[in-house]
Design brief:
Helix 1 runs antiparallel to helix 5, helix 2 crosses helix 3 and helix 2 packs antiparallel against helix 4. The radius of gyration is 25 Å and the shape is elongated. Strand 2 and strand 3 form a beta hairpin. Helix content is 61%, strand content 14%.
Length: 240
């Protein structure tokens, strides 16, 4: 929340400066110094942004290469840790803002249109507002908890069905809080299993799932197979 407050204040000051530049356009001097600084900024923040995108792919457990790292980062950013998401959003605005500022400097210097500097400054301010809103929203969702993505549900279901005694998943609820998942499920086991063996299977599945670094806790219940296929998702072995 501190980051949200700081970014919001910075966004307000940026937009205020933008409106000031619209009323009193500044004369562009030392263009090559400005261009050099902005290019260096794009290079540094762009490098950091690319590394964060790769980190998002790792945290989301997605194999990405080349341009797929960029598209994968936007697609799976919700599955990354809150600090990783914050750095991603901030660097995304930093790179975008530097590119816009570079365009504004060049246009203002080589053309009589002097208002672009103020317009771009206001645009950067709105980008910062977007970051503040997104970070605040993600924090709120992290506290409340949301349903896990479909691919996470399928991955956990596949891990459960690795056990031959599991016939069906009667119910499963996976809640995401931050980057961690809470799993609650009822499993249908083969008929005729003694209670002690059924308990051993349940504990084995719990141990396997809780070993996943993204899963915070697992609560499982076991019932006897009712002969009705309840689980409609993927992850189920073809033989079942």
């Amino acid at each position: 929340m501190i980051a949200v407050i700081v970014v919001s204040v910075m966004a307000y000051e940026t937009m205020r400066e933008g409106f000031h530049l619209l009323k009193h356009p500044a004369e562009v001097k030392g263009i090559w110094i400005n261009v050099s600084v902005l290019l260096l900024n794009i290079l540094i923040d762009g490098t950091i942004l690319f590394k964060v995108m790769k980190e998002i792919s790792q945290e989301a457990r997605v194999e990405s290469r080349g341009a797929g790292i960029v598209t994968g980062a936007f697609k799976h950013v919700k599955r990354a840790a809150p600090p990783t998401r914050l750095v991603f959003y901030e660097d995304l605005v930093a790179v975008s803002g530097a590119i816009l500022a570079l365009i504004a400097v060049l246009v203002s210097y080589f053309s009589p249109f002097q208002l672009l500097d103020g317009i771009v400054t206001i645009m950067i301010g709105f980008l910062m507002v977007g970051v503040a809103f997104r970070v605040g929203y993600d924090n709120m969702v992290g506290l409340i908890g949301v349903a896990a993505p479909k691919e996470v549900e399928d991955r956990i279901a596949a891990a459960i069905f690795e056990h031959e005694a599991v016939i069906d998943i009667y119910k499963m609820r996976i809640t995401q809080e931050g980057r961690y998942y809470h799993v609650e499920s009822y499993l249908e086991l083969k008929k005729g299993l003694p209670l002690s063996e059924a308990d051993d299977i349940k504990f084995a599945i719990q141990d396997q799932l809780i070993a996943d670094p993204d899963i915070a806790d697992v609560t499982l219940g076991i019932i006897e197979d009712n002969g009705i296929q309840e689980w409609k998702g993927t992850g189920m072995p073809e033989t079942q």
